[in-house]
Amino acid sequence: MQTKIVTAQDGLSLAKQYIFGGDVVAFHTETVYGLGADARSDEAVKRIFALKGRPSDNPLIAHIHAEFDLKTLIDGEPPYAEKLRKAFLPGPLTMVYPSNGKVSKYVSCGLKTLAVRVPASPTAQAFLRAVDIPIAAPSANLSGHVSPVTAQHVYRDFCGKIPLILDGGASSGGIESTVLDCTGEIPMILRAGLVTREMIASVAGACEVYHRKAGEAPKSPGMAHRHYAPRCRTACVSDAAEAIALYDREQEGGGSPVVLCESGLAAMFAPRRVLDVGGDGEEMARRLYALLREGEDTATLIVAVEPKARGGVMEGVLNRFSRAFGRNTDEA
Ligand code: TXA
Ligand code: MG
Questions:
Q1: Ligand 1 centre distance from Cα of residue 55 (Å)
Q2: Residue 166 beta carbon below 6 angstroms from any ligand 1 atom
Q3: Which atom of ligand 1 is nearest to the CA of 94?
Q4: Are β-strands 25-27 and 4-7 bridged in parallel, bridged antiparallel, or unpaired?
Q5: What is the mean pLDDT of the chain?
Q6: Contact between residue 177 and residue 160 where contact means Cβ atoms under 8 Å apart
């Protein structure tokens, strides 16, 4: 199969044809690229899991366009969720609702809830409007690999396996959407992202962050899987001296190491090779995945220095950092 990369402008009728034929189409969103299929079709949704090699207990997000009637998919919405929806959608926020069972049971992997997202990307909106059905879509990477933020990243993982990629350029957000459980009295963050706890609390009045208790099944099953891992060796350290020691040892052994660190530290590593991830949370989110992919293509070892800042977007950045570099306490 040939994999075509086209803009939404040129590819919409083709995309529609593939989706209604039960096939899978990759598309740009402002967070990361998605791998979409008809959420109402068992066969189409199962194809996504097969293509990604995704564990069958990790549910998918249903994507809809901004005018799509959410109420046709869910079974009730608390007042705080309506406020949040009006404040942040379309945008990088996924909301988990009680499901009314209208999409394939494979989307939510048997859970009684449904995660819904309205992406802001014009490419995604054009695609979702053209099909006018809910599109189940995980990030368009092979399971466990770094999420894609360009059409070329998707191509690397799925060349010859999917017919079409709707190219909208580089994703401006850079990490996946915030996943927010809206089934309880207070909204609860299941996956941190660009819509932060502080932003949600300022609209809803309160916001909790889910922490898995020992022995408990995770509320968001995807968070229990190793993820975002580059295909080279990695190490994560908290100070520059440790990073230099690891770097130099790798180089002496004939390897080609690279340091990944925030802008403020980059000069300390000269003349060593550095991937500068940025100076603030938004910049780090935007650059992280592209740099992980660059690192795996060009180095034998990425030595990451954990950023010091906390709160806001940094919570999402640090979550991806620890999962990419294997410091995930939840790791299954
Ligand atoms: O930004 C994004 O969210 C991207 C783009 C393509 O929209 N999508 C994405 O999908 O990151 P994925 O499949 O890679 O991650 C979905 C996350 C997983 O952690 C999954 O466990 C969680 O959402 N999830 C999905 N449905 C859920 C549900 N009903 N209850 C709890 N968590 C759910
Ligand atoms: Mg993913």
A1: 13
A2: no
A3: 3
A4: unpaired
A5: 95
A6: no
| CATH numbers and ranges of domains, the chain | 4-209 (3.90.870.10), 233-324 (3.40.50.11030)
Q: Is the CB of 179 under 6 A from ligand 1?
A: yes
Nearest CA among 157, 154, 179, 178 for reference residue 166: 154
Q: Among the bound ligands, name the one nearest to the CA of residue 143.
A: 2
Quote the pLDDT of residue 326.
76
User: Is 138 a pocket residue for ligand 1 (Cβ < 6 Å)?
Assistant: yes
Nearest to 310 by CA among 262, 257, 256, 255: 262
DSSP result, 68-105: S-GGGTBS---HHHHHHHHHH-SSSEEEEEEB-S-S-T
Here the tokens at position 221 are: 């099953």
Q: How confident is the model at residue 328 (pLDDT cuts 50, 70, 90)?
A: very low
The residue type at 241? A
**Phi, psi values for residue 27, rounded to 5°:** -145, 150
> What are the tens digits of pLDDT across the range 137-178?
999 999 999 999 999 999 999 999 999 999 999 999 999 999
Q: From the CB of 30, is ligand 1 less than 6 Å away?
A: no
Instruction: Say what the pLDDT of residue 332 is.
Output: 28
> What pLDDT digit, counting tens, does each position of 98-143 carry?
999 999 999 999 999 999 999 999 999 999 999 999 999 999 999 9
Atom 3 (ligand 1) nearest CA: 177
Give the atom of ligand 1 at the shortest distance from the alpha carbon of 179.
Answer: 23
Q: Give me the helix-helix angle, 281-298 and 151-158, nearest 10°.
A: 40
| DSSP-assigned letters across all residues of 195-234 | S-HHHHHHHHS--EE--PPTTPPPSSGGGGS--SB-SSEE
Task: Record the pTM.
Answer: 0.96
Q: Which of 313, 322, 37, 9 is nearest to 176 (CA)?
A: 313
